[in-house]
Amino acid sequence: MGFTFKIYEKDPTSSARRGKIITTHGEVETPVFMPVGTQGTVKSLTPDEIKNCGVEMILANTYHLYLRPGHETIKNMDGLHHFMNWPRPILTDSGGFQVYSLAKLRKILPEGVMFQSHIDGSRHLLTPQKAVEIQEALGSDIMMCLDDCTPYPATYMQTKKSLDLTINWAKLSREAKKPSAQALFGIIQGGNYKDLRQKALEETVKIGFDGYALGGLSVGEPQEIMYEIAHNFTNALPVDKPRYLMGVGTPEDIVYAVSCGADMFDCVIPTRSARHGLLFTNDEKIVIKNARWRQSDIPPDETCDCYTCKNFSRAYLRHLYIAGEILAMILNTIHNVRYYTRLMERIREALKENRFTQFKNEFLNNKGGV
Amino acid sequence: MGFTFKIYEKDPTSSARRGKIITTHGEVETPVFMPVGTQGTVKSLTPDEIKNCGVEMILANTYHLYLRPGHETIKNMDGLHHFMNWPRPILTDSGGFQVYSLAKLRKILPEGVMFQSHIDGSRHLLTPQKAVEIQEALGSDIMMCLDDCTPYPATYMQTKKSLDLTINWAKLSREAKKPSAQALFGIIQGGNYKDLRQKALEETVKIGFDGYALGGLSVGEPQEIMYEIAHNFTNALPVDKPRYLMGVGTPEDIVYAVSCGADMFDCVIPTRSARHGLLFTNDEKIVIKNARWRQSDIPPDETCDCYTCKNFSRAYLRHLYIAGEILAMILNTIHNVRYYTRLMERIREALKENRFTQFKNEFLNNKGGV
To answer: Quick count: other Cβ atoms within 10 Å of Cβ A257?
Structure first.
């Protein structure tokens, strides 16, 4: 009863598919969006609120939890699910991306990456083996291999060197993993170079993982490049394993990537935007502080079934935001997370009813197209 | 079907009593504690969470809501209950205390108080009539008369002069109030001078209100003085009207004041302490950031039935607090508000079972006594 993945439908006119991930902590319908719970909390939401938004799986950041409160502490508290009171599936990243984006004095070595904590300046060496060990201590359902995240832009040689490291680390991660119900996913790097991406894909698949991720996206590259990589390489991944597009993305990005065959997504956009007073709807992104909402008695989205939309007006949300109230962040986050899970529900519904391409075209045209 | 107050039991060995306030927005068991919802939100809680804590009535601040978003806006949004989605009773203060404590360039005039907004420096004149008008626009169930809050310490002459103003303003407030289901409470000032407190009491009761408050407490005076005033004057208030001890207080203060005959309390202590990582229990006040909780798997209070205590460990709450997470404030606030409402439930239970004085003695001795 370990980690399994089933596919229900394949879309006849695209590479999209609908399926289910089964873990020891429950089942996850795919395509799925995972809200980001960086420090063992999806910012500003209680686990009950996360569940009520229809979330089935969240992502937690290994880098943050390793530094604070420490993976040993979480292990002693019976693992991350128990610690944060989230009984459903959790995916942990490897920490590599946060070392790349947050840590000070980062130094890449053949055996791993040396860095200084952004919290207290302490020095750490994160190796592929250590990343697996930390994630095993956290007890996540899906672990990710430590990769070297190639920056954008990068030369061919830089990218190749970085990729060789990632592939080597993938092998070491695979070897380090203890037998358990925890799944381990490989990450395909290779930047913006087709042959390197192809090489990454072949070599990583050869090692053999429970699922595969396209990495090195959402690192500042133009949308066209991200779309091209998603288009060229998602459906080239093994058909019987979950495919995860890391760090993606906007609602439009997700709908497009589903058509390329991606099953899993994570992004801080819904939660971070909420804290900045941006609310997603199908029509427009609402800037809640705008004076036009001062006496607006309608909810953010009249078609939405979330707690915020069922109970509060734009006028009240505007007031909370301008007054700097914590409740502004809570209610905005509830709505945006629910917007994303509803989007995934609509995508799965369209797949079930064999009308995904129609849904995709309508959705992307409505947004101004891609 | 206006505002009514019923008494169920009077304690045989103290002035304590158990009763019920009935408003058009529902009933409130007394003695009651009202969490403070300054800007139309009890900081960091959703209305559902407030209800789940067993809260029956909240307090909102007229000063803040008048300045932002404005009472006319709230009136246009069908009143404060609808605006903030809190269908249960609301008490609004008059704004006088916040003008006293927050506003810039405050100037007392015979007709009211001139002040500058702490938000944008704009000038305003708050008169007794205006305070009633604002509270009528907000639509609160209980309105308070504008009073002049005498500072501590103050000379006899300062206090007398301030009191004369408060009594005159009480008359003007009473005259300004439109007939409605909204109740209006008078406020007894008089500082630390018995004869002035007595005069305030007689004159205010002569005007005739739906309830009476002891004001000018919790303004920096020693606890003994507050206890003496509560002891001497609470039970001197009309027996058939609710008695409200404004701004009180700690759990010990409340238990003591109930024995003096007080029915209603409000204070920022539970919510503000929560945001600073202090958690109330019957045994000790927990400082959640302390290293001793690093791997503590017990909840803040094993006897507590709140969402926080039912689901989270001290170790997790410590992690959230140290990591600066919003969820720390949410979960801590849920617990502290529930601690206060449970305290009031225990007080009412003791009154019902004719053992309040025993409860009081045990509670206060357990805390080191008074």
So the answer is: 28
